[in-house]
Amino acid sequence: MARRSSGGRSARPAPRRAPAPAPVRQASAPAPAQSGSGGGIGSVIAEGMAFGGGSAIAHRAVDGLFGPRTIQHETVVSAAPTPTSKSMGGSDACSVHSKAFQDCVNNFGSDISKCQFYMDMLSECKNNSGMLSA
């Protein structure tokens, strides 16, 4: 069996040349830094005043839609006995501070640093009651 010729044409097309790369452009020089009124403490103060003014306007708008905000203070009446003259001496004088410290430890057992204030108050009470007894 004889091969047929395709008239001098090859089965594969001739490889094409890749287009020439575009010339590389140089980056333009950066813009010069602004001086004078472009920055500084004055612009920061002006920006803060604008933010505060916008915040006040937004609060007024929300108050107009939903009514004014009201703050209610609740007082809790405890059933703890009132201190008498005989309970002012010794460890009874510090029982309030001791109870506050214990409550804090019970609430924030994992983070004792939050109870430092109560511990300081208890220590100061014990130091002061020791001075009164002596």
From TrEMBL:
GO terms for cellular component: mitochondrion; nucleus. Residues 1-39 are annotated as: Disordered. Residues 94-127 form the CHCH domain. Pfam families: CHCH. Residues 1-15, 23-35 have a biased composition (Low complexity). Keywords: Disulfide bond. GO terms for biological process: mitochondrion organization. This is Putative cysteine alpha-hairpin motif superfamily. It comes from Rosa chinensis (China rose). The lineage of its organism: Eukaryota, Viridiplantae, Streptophyta, Embryophyta, Tracheophyta.
